[in-house]
Design goal:
Layout: H1 7-10, H2 15-22, E1 41-43, E2 46-50, E3 55-66, E4 69-82, E5 102-117, E6 120-130, E7 135-146, E8 149-159, E9 164-168, E10 176-178
Antiparallel strand pairs: 1-3, 2-3, 3-4, 4-5, 5-6, 6-7, 7-8, 8-9, 8-10
C-alpha cells in the first residue's frame, strides 16, 4: 500500500495557479508571472489529487468563479508537470515551495461545459486548454460566441495567442456561423 502525502503537502497544490494560467483578461491566454493574484473560487462535490499521475481532478458540479470569468462542467482535470530546474525560482528548495516546482500542462473540462470570459462564451461536451500553446479546443456540440458572432460545429479550436479559429463540422451537420456585419454605406 502506497503512503499518501500529508494533508499539509496536498494543501500546497497550486489550485489557483492552474486557473490563473488558463483564464486571464487578455484573450484567454497565459498570465504574466508578475501580475497580482486574482481571487479564484473552485467548488465541486469531490476533489482528487494523484501525485504520481501529476493530476488534480474536480468531480461533480464543478464551478470556477473569478472576476470576469466562469466555468461550469461535470469534471475538471488539471495536468501538472515538473518545471525544469533552470526554470524554478532561485533559492527555493523543493521542500519549501511546491508551487515553485510545478506548472500546468493542460486542463480538460468534461460534461456540459460552459465557459464565459467577458463577452466570449463557449459551450461543448468537452473543452481542452493547452497552456503553452494558448489553444482552446471545444468538442461535441461546440459553440463559440463573441460579440455578435456565433460559430457552431463538432470541434472548434481557438488559438487565443494568434487569434485564429478553426471549426469542423460533422457528416450529418455542416459548420454554421452567424456574423453581425456593419451596414454597407450607400453607393454615391
Amino acid at each position: 500500500m502506497k503512503a499518501r502525502p500529508p494533508l499539509s503537502r496536498i494543501s500546497r497544490i497550486p489550485f489557483f495557479l492552474a486557473l490563473l494560467v488558463l483564464f486571464v483578461p487578455s484573450d484567454w491566454c497565459l498570465a504574466d508571472q508578475h501580475e497580482e493574484a486574482i481571487p479564484t473560487r473552485i467548488t465541486s462535490e469531490r476533489l482528487r489529487y494523484a501525485h504520481h499521475d501529476h493530476q488534480i481532478e474536480f468531480i461533480g458540479e464543478v464551478r470556477v468563479d473569478r472576476p470576469n470569468f466562469q466555468l461550469r462542467s461535470e469534471r475538471l482535470l488539471v495536468f501538472l508537470r515538473t518545471l525544469p530546474r533552470d526554470d524554478r525560482p532561485v533559492g527555493v528548495s523543493s521542500d519549501q515551495d511546491m508551487d515553485a516546482q510545478v506548472d500546468i500542462e493542460k486542463m480538460i473540462a468534461l460534461g456540459q461545459v460552459f465557459l464565459k470570459h467577458e463577452e466570449r462564451v463557449g459551450h461543448g461536451d468537452m473543452a481542452t486548454y493547452w497552456v503553452d500553446q494558448g489553444v482552446l479546443r471545444l468538442e461535441g456540440n461546440a459553440r463559440f460566441e463573441e460579440g455578435g458572432t456565433r460559430l457552431e460545429g463538432n470541434v472548434i479550436t481557438v488559438n487565443v495567442q494568434e487569434r485564429e479559429v478553426d471549426v469542423e463540422g460533422r457528416t450529418d451537420r455542416r459548420v454554421e456561423g452567424m456574423f453581425l456585419l456593419p451596414r454597407e454605406q450607400e453607393e454615391r
